# Entry
Amino acid sequence: MLDIEIQPADDSQKRPKPEDENKLVFGTVFSDHMFIMNYDEGKGWHSARIVPYHPLSLDPATMVLHYGQGIFEGLKAYRCHDGRVNLFRPGKNWERFNRSARRMCMPEIDPDFQTHALEQLLRLDVDWIPKKKGTSLYIRPTMLATEAALGVRPAKQYVYYIITSPVGPYYPEGFNPVKIYVTDKYVRAVRGGVGEAKTLGNYAASLYAAEEAKKKGYTQVLWLDGVERRYVEEVGTMNIFFRIGDELITPPLTGSILPGITRDSVIHLAKHWGIPVHERPITIGEVIEKAKTGELKECFGTGTAAVISPVGELYYKGETCVINNGTVGEWSKRFYDEIVGIQYGEKNDPFGWIHQVPIN
Ligand SMILES: *Cc1c(COP(=O)(O)O)cnc(C)c1O
# Structure
């Protein structure tokens, strides 16, 4: 395994820590240190180091800035009430990172090294992991093509880094359902494209539709498939689930959907609890029809940031349909409580999802 050189921040390089853990705004404050390493074709990964957080210096011709060859991950470190620090299924993030890397013609990183590098970083910045219930340290591993050259081809040089950011509870005012706009005008991804990779361009591509939805008073966009614009794919940057009667339905992973780790965890829990769960195509027509007959009892998004995001209202083609009277459903709450309970070490972990970080 590569050696990691550690250069701790001196007092002048330390960053102001947020004083009020209730007022953390997502993704705005970053901790004292970052992990960083470089890749050169023929040489592989090298120069692994943990250094004070600092700006990158990039040549204007840097390939990622022109052609978008870049990927990232998102996970969190949770502090338990007894001081332990937990990661939730980090191996899944490293697996997905390497899948994204392959799809984008980028070099892979050894998953064990990923865990090791992250642990070293967390150990140094342990005081940045907030303590209040519901808070966490958001972790953003990122890889970018850094070769300075124009021309569309895979780069020969890359940088990989991990930055971390303390974040507040996702639901400071309580667990509230959101209003969703179903777009049949714009699509997020198509089969055969890069929708299943956590790659930069997917998020730029989603902005316009999200802004339109916001102007109309909706929080997020529900994406339909790129070909027929009938099949439900995702909601915002989350996977989506429907409770129809007493069954749980989520669209299958057919290439255009991001394989969420929270999605996988909900499927696991449902099976464990004896809830019938189906990964099958579901059209927006079926969703609207089942909402009208009352069979659609719940709808929720899943992702690391919110864990579970209940949907209280859907707008589609001039019609509004309210789900579960706009209140949080029983299953949404149950999945939320269970996953959050496991993450913070307050509930049993029957699947071995927790990776405890050795911090002392
Ligand atoms: C990251 C992401 C998700 C959720 O994945 P988790 O692993 O559950 O956080 C879902 N959809 C998109 C588009 C994403 O980028």
Remarks:
- The helical segments are 63-67, 90-103, 111-124, 200-215, 261-272, 284-293, 330-343.
- The chain has seven helices and 18 strands.
